[in-house]
Amino acid sequence: MSYLLKRIAFYLFTAWAAITINFFIPRVIPGDPVQALITRSRGQMTSEAVQSLYVLFGLDKDASLVEQYFTYLGQLLSGDLGLSFTYFPSPVSQVLGDGLPWTLGLVGITTVLGFLIGTALGTGIGWRRGSWADALIPVTTFVSSIPYFWLGLIAIALLTGPDSFFPASGAYDNGLVPNPDLQFIGSVLRHGILPAFTILISSMAGWILSMRNMMVTVASEDYVTVAHAKGLSDRRVMVSYAARNALLPNVSGFALSLGFIVGGTLLVEIVFSYPGLGLQLFQAVGAKDYPLMQGIFLIITLSVLLANFLADVAYLALDPRTRREG
Fold it and tell me: Where's the ABC transmembrane type-1 domain (predicted)?
């Protein structure tokens, strides 16, 4: 229990540090975001109107930095992430709410599937080392080294076209209104096949390699030999003894991959013009939309922390040594 409490305290401190750094991002970046917004809109504004914009975006020059910081913390606690410059006057929370489901639906599902399939295949290949399955290792090594977006570009070049079943961009057909009917759901699935395929193939290959190598290492341990000597079935030794211990390093990697779901496939969403957080981050950087960038960075940071916390909890369940004091 003390281990878990220490980890909770650590993650709470890290979350506070990330929020504090996030507060200073628009204040240390060269340039004035409010003036950039005024210039882009090509409008004539009075000095009172300009000052109102500074107050609206939490950059009030009449308030001290400490006052701005506590105002920012209060806004976060109330769920207020500010207003987006790019989608003005839409709040950042609304913009993120529009993009987050697409990213979670595409990248989240494929990341989990890639981990489950890759880990299962890596377990079998590593346990039966020296068999014909080892011939797959060079292939997986090559595929795991290919970036997601490069596979996406190849898929677009080879599989899309005027008469192709696979669309080259977007999340659903033009003219459709998002609603839970069969036509819209079918369009979403058809548009998601290629980007999901590129993420799944590349990530799955990496999990196969890492799990296979860990299984080869663990299979020579003494406790595996003792389990065989007890007369336990080969399947039980593989799953309950070898795979359970070989899985531990993969848990940390899987936690990080879950944490980076919201921003780790930025280039895939750009290549396929998929309306997720990755594409929104790209647009925010181009438009100097500091509030939207802050919101996305904050979500990525908190997602990584939450995923690592869940990994610690999983370690408690998988490794009895972490439950012992001293």
Answer: 100-311
pLDDT of residue 326 exceeding 50: no
What total number of domains does the chain contain?
Answer: 1
In the structure encoding, which two tokens stand for residue 180, read together? 């839970």
What stretches of the chain show up as alpha helix (H) in DSSP? 2-28, 33-41, 47-56, 65-77, 92-103, 109-127, 137-144, 148-159, 182-218, 222-229, 234-236, 244-259, 266-271, 277-287, 290-318
Is residue 282 within 8 A of residue 243, CB to CB? The reply is no
Half-sphere exposure of 264 (CA within 13 A, CB side): 21
Asked if the structure places residue 302 within a domain, the reply is no
Residue 106 belongs to domain with CATH number: 1.10.3720.10
Residue pair 193/186 in contact (Cβ under 8 Å)? The answer is no
Tokens (6 digits) for 202: 């590349």
Domain that holds residue 138: 93-288
Q: Is residue 239 part of a domain?
A: yes
**What average pLDDT score do residues 110-133 get?**
83
